[in-house]
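TASK: fixed-backbone design
INPUT:
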């Protein structure tokens, strides 16, 4: 058992309670809604994370474990072909049965079995790795639960205030919580020499298979902005005709602007009186006046790339981001504000090998047609164990707008 899991049951319990806590202010009706094919109901997240521990850990490794309800293996399997048929992803909102109460009972059943398995039976080393994967898997779903539910609430004409206090840090807040409290806020660039640098996870501690193996890449000298793009800056782009100027957009992005009728970021609202200067942004506290200092979030890759083109810059590659994060850990807003789009396709690293068994399907089969995001967002859990790290690779398709995603500008450096 790794040193980070001196008390695996305590970590497990804290993590599971945090998931439930996220749903405390939601009604059963809220938790059943699926607002689009890509977003799952909160209730489904509660059950699916439980199914993962049941199907991947307990069924295979806990002697005498009694499955709660076999039908749940069809209902709450996400995408594991090797673990059987499943409810279609775009029809998860049809699962008004089982009730939320039954799903809470499912969680309690699996939690009791996990307690016995961890504290009495004593898991093998292989099983501990799957247990640890289950913890990080549930943390990923904690963030998805927030973004999926926020999207559902955004489609409700009442634009309700969920009340979750997960707010993206501004650059100045990021500085006051970092070790470098004397640094002034600047809008400048940090220069990096590049060269042959090592990237990927190679050390101790947990990492997903997609972060390995550690390997070398060649970087030209480059510079990264010392903070994320703010809402105020994105507003300036809007006022410069952002969504009406094809020259800033990738062809596919411009097609999406036209076909979807994009005129602003997904959660931005012009004030009722039609005054375009008085923007509001929908978030976890309902509709709030746009804060020009706050990082702009919930942007697609297409919008991020268009902004960068307008600003005369570009998006960083994932390896520039990781190299900068390794060399300059005091760089504001690396973590805890918004996931940062990179210009890198989500591809396997040289020598990549998926995990074995059912969890071979965890990451590898999604390595086509998606872009890598680096850092972490305000919605990314930090307790009971850290979730993000500098080698972490998040990924979404280029048109995804419902995640807490923003951007940090990059450019070539003359250094
Ligand atoms: Fe999952």
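OUTPUT:
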């Amino acid at each position: 058992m790794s040193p980070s899991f001196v008390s695996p049951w305590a970590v497990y319990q804290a993590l599971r309670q945090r998931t439930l806590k996220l749903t405390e202010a939601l009604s059963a009706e809220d938790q059943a809604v699926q607002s689009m094919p890509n977003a799952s109901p909160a209730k489904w997240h509660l059950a699916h994370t439980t199914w993962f521990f049941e199907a991947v850990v307990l069924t295979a490794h806990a002697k005498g474990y009694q499955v709660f309800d076999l039908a749940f293996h069809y209902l709450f399997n996400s995408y594991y072909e090797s673990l059987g048929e499943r409810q279609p992803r775009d029809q998860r909102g049809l699962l008004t049965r089982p009730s939320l109460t039954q799903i809470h009972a499912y969680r309690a059943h699996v939690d009791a079995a996990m307690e016995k398995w961890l504290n009495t039976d004593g898991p093998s080393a292989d099983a501990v790795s799957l247990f640890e994967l289950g913890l990080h898997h549930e943390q990923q779903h904690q963030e998805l639960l927030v973004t999926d539910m926020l999207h559902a609430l955004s489609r409700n004409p009442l634009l309700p205030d969920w009340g979750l206090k997960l707010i993206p840090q501004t650059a100045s807040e990021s500085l006051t919580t970092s070790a470098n409290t004397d640094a002034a806020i600047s809008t400048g660039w940090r220069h990096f020499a590049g060269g042959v640098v090592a990237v990927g996870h190679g050390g101790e501690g947990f990492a997903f298979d997609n972060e390995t193996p550690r390997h070398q890449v060649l970087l030209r000298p480059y510079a990264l902005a010392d903070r994320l793009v703010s809402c105020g800056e994105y507003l300036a782009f809007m006022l410069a005709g952002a969504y009406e100027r094809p020259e800033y957009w990738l062809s596919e992005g411009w097609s999406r602007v036209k076909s979807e009728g994009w005129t602003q970021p997904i959660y931005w609202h012009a004030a009722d009186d039609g005054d375009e200067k008085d923007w509001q942004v929908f978030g976890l506290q309902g509709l709030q006046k746009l804060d020009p200092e706050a990082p702009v979030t919930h942007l697609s890759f297409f919008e991020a790339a268009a902004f960068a083109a307008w600003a005369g810059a570009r998006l960083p590659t994932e390896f520039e981001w990781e190299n900068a994060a390794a060399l300059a850990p005091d760089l504001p807003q690396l973590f805890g504000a918004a996931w940062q789009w990179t210009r890198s396709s989500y591809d396997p690293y040289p020598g990549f090998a998926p995990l074995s068994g059912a969890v071979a399907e965890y990451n590898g089969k999604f390595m086509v047609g998606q872009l890598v995001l680096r850092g972490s967002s305000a919605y990314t859990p930090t307790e009971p164990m850290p979730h993000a790290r500098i080698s972490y690779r998040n990924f979404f398709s280029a048109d995804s707008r419902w995640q807490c995603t923003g951007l940090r500008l990059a450019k070539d450096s003359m250094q």
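COMMENT: The CA atoms of residues 40 and 92 lie 6 Å apart.
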